[in-house]
Amino acid sequence: QAKRKPAFGSVGRRIPYRILHVINQDGESLGNMHRAEALRLMDEHGLKLVLLRENVEPPVYRLMTGQQIHEEQLKRAEKKKASPKPGVVQKELTFSSAIAKNDLETKIKQITVWIEKKHHVKITIRQAK
């Protein structure tokens, strides 16, 4: 069974690693430290620890406010929405505003075929000179 990547968010106090690389909420590196020291910093400043990169030695965590975590989750969701899903074909057609009637009908037929095949269709209309 494939291991699912955890969603971006606060990891709370469940940190499986002894030594962490910690970044503060302003993006400045605080260096490597023991997890107890990172938890103490988290409690002192009222922040949350978030895992950024797990596949490096030591893993990188960042101290963030709840607002920063929320904004980052929104950014990631927007990026995921913008990228086409695997297995979904996206087709694109560009029309000129001065397109002839028979050319328009031909392109409409092609779009209909793509939609029936469940492709995503993107249409761009350019203004004629």
Strand fraction equals 25-35%
Instruction: Write down the overall mean pLDDT.
Output: 83
Helix-strand pattern, N to C? EEHEEHEHE
CATH top level assignment of the largest domain: Alpha Beta
Which strand order does the major sheet show? 2-1-4-3
Structural class: alpha/beta
Number of helices: 3
How many discrete domains? 2
Broad shape: elongated
CATH homologous superfamily grouping of the largest domain: Translation initiation factor 3 (IF-3), N-terminal domain
List unreliable stretches of 5+ residues.
none
CATH fold descriptor of the largest domain: Ubiquitin-like (UB roll)
Main beta-sheet strand count, sense and barrel state: 4 strands, mixed
Percent of residues in helices comes to 25-40%
Radius of gyration: 24 Å
Give a count of the beta strands, DSSP E runs of length 2 or more. 6
Q: Which architecture of the largest domain per CATH?
A: Roll
Kindly summarize this structure in a few lines.
Residues 11-78 form the Translation initiation factor 3 N-terminal domain. With 129 residues, the chain is α/β, with parallel strands linked by helices.
Characterise the protein shown here.
- This protein is α/β, with parallel strands linked by helices and 129 residues long.
- The protein is built from three helices and six strands.
- Strands 2-1-4-3 form a four-stranded mixed sheet. A two-stranded parallel sheet has the order 5-6.
- Helix 3 (101-116) links the parallel strand 5 and strand 6.
- The chain starts with 18 loop residues before the first strand and ends with a strand.
- The mean pLDDT is 83.
